[in-house]
Amino acid sequence: MHAYYADHFVLPLPEGHRFPMRKYSRLRDRLAGELPDVRLFEAPAASNGELALVHTPTYIQGIAQGSLDPSYYREIGFPWSPAMAERARRSVGASVAAARAALAEGLAGNLAGGTHHAYADKGGGFCVFNDIAVTARLMQAEVGRQRKTPFRVAVVDLDVHQGNGTAHIFARDPSVFTLSLHGEKNFPFRKEPSDLDVGLPDGCTDEAYLPALHQALAELEGRFTPDMVIYLAGADPHEGDRLGRLKLTLDGMAARDRVVFDWAWQRHLPVVLCMGGGYGHDIETTVAVQVQTWAVAQEYWQRWQARAALRA
Question: Which of 134, 188, 244, 268 has the fewest beta carbons under 10 Å from its own?
């Protein structure tokens, strides 16, 4: 199973910054040691042309050169640096590479990504470029050359924060369905309408979350027939998260992942896995949730390989 990383581009964040940059290298270390079928690759950088499928030229140039008004970087939440610009490109490149691998093997992922707060012309909430949107657009362009019907992408966003940037980018696009299951009272406080939004109350537990997810996927299926799924498996609905405000247990998070992977598996839909947010009081708690997600993903990747072997 292909997994792409860019954790060696470490941002010079001030002491006490709430963004847990160290979780990315820690996740890679644990996957390398614990999940032998997960093959780790350095993420390529997305090109200007790939980014321009979604983002405005002025914004792309401003991130590359650090020439935007300082208010843009404040809204993102990161100070500009060459490492910040390079990491943002590679976060997109990781999801693009994972999508190409998923089309070939059924499932692949990005050890970061899920930057769903980025709009076409600005970032926000620790998101610079929108890797989900660029990946969807690029897969539509690449696969569209080979087929006569549109390539349709479902975004299943289970980060605890609503995917406002992704929703806005695809607001008038019938070829992409955006589903967001999130904390209703959490960031962003001004939400953009997704194709399907499910707002959950603070303190939501496994017992309420999982039926809501089943219902949301059933509604998605009733309204849209995808060719690929981009899954944001945010760790922040977990009860140990500082910013999440939901109360899913570790077992509940595993059940969540199985619901999504099984739904896609039953419909023969390739899945691109992105990690989204995770801000545990203890960084090891966040990493444990993410490792568990990858372990479940590995099981479903193995099913894809077994299916391919039977057909060979």
Answer: 268
